Amino acid sequence: MSRVGRLVVIEGLDGSGKRTLTEALTKALHNLGKSVATRAFPRYGESVHADLVREALHGGHGDLAASVHGMAVLYALDRRGAADAIVDDLKLHDIVLLDRYVASNAAYGAARLHQDARGEFVEWVRELEVTRFGLPLPDTQILLRVRPEVAAERAARRAQSEVDRAKDAFESDDDLQIRCARVYDQLAADGWLSPWQVVDGTAGFDAAELAAGLVHPG
Ligand SMILES: Nc1ncnc2c1ncn2[C@@H]1O[C@H](COP(=O)(O)OP(=O)(O)OP(=O)(O)O)[C@@H](O)[C@H]1O
Ligand SMILES: Cc1cn([C@H]2C[C@H](O)[C@@H](COP(=O)(O)O)O2)c(=O)[nH]c1=O
């Protein structure tokens, strides 16, 4: 059976509200009678590569976190391990919603290296994950755009209220988040890997309207 569903990716800064939007969109799509599969990357607790990432972001594994390419390969291997499951989801569901995907690797790695969206790193990620690993391309990517200081405040509040959510090395680096926001804006403007839709996550969003747009694109 071939792909019938649409692959929709939600991207944005740490604490921007991706998980919250994923949950709201899932409900709104169900209300429209659509079947939805959701996944979040990294797949903590499910993939050894994701667990290594989490440990490195919290100071484990020596100087692993300092290696931009080393960390990006771990994120990419986590996704490669889920590729077949995503393809299966696309055969069975109307919408497959992903909380972070390949563009997270592009945005964070480029920002760490002080590159922009047209630099070598972003192209290296595309070559690794799309060309070499064969990850399915998104049909659309949603950039949940929130000012970095707002995202940082939300992440800080969540770190206080939820167990096991202490800020990691990337979340604690305000300058990295500011550069990352710029790379995301460029990826969206360039239509990297797919068309993008930019959603203002500071003002709040209308999940029903967004869901309707996903079901009847264009
Ligand atoms: N529109 C909003 N207004 C106010 N607070 C919000 C909004 N959306 C999410 N939050 C809160 O901000 C915090 C971060 O939200 P959420 O976990 O959805 O972000 P995230 O982008 O998935 O984060 P991460 O990428 O770091 O996992 C949560 O405490 C959530 O309740
Ligand atoms: C999937 C993915 C994530 N990242 C970065 C983004 C975050 O700062 C951390 C952890 O993600 P979480 O959503 O806060 O759990 O990792 C990345 O650099 N590359 C990726 O592919």
UniProtKB/TrEMBL annotation:
Catalyzed reactions per annotation: dTMP + ATP = dTDP + ADP
InterPro entries, per the entry: P-loop_NTPase, Thymidylate_kin-like_dom, Thymidylate_kinase
Keywords, sorted A to Z: ATP-binding, Kinase, Nucleotide biosynthesis, Nucleotide-binding, Transferase
One Gene Ontology term from the biological process aspect of the record: dTDP biosynthetic process
CC terms in the record's Gene Ontology section: cytosol
EC code(s) of this entry: 2.7.4.9
Any Pfam family matching the protein: Thymidylate_kin
Top-level taxon of the source organism: Bacteria
Gene Ontology terms for molecular function: ATP binding; dTMP kinase activity
Residues annotated as domain Thymidylate kinase-like: 10-192
PANTHER family tied to this protein: THYMIDYLATE KINASE, UMP-CMP KINASE 2, MITOCHONDRIAL
Task performed by this protein: Phosphorylation of dTMP to form dTDP in both de novo and salvage pathways of dTTP synthesis.
Family membership: Belongs to the thymidylate kinase family.
Protein name: Thymidylate kinase
Organism: Amycolatopsis pithecellobii
Gene this chain is encoded by: tmk
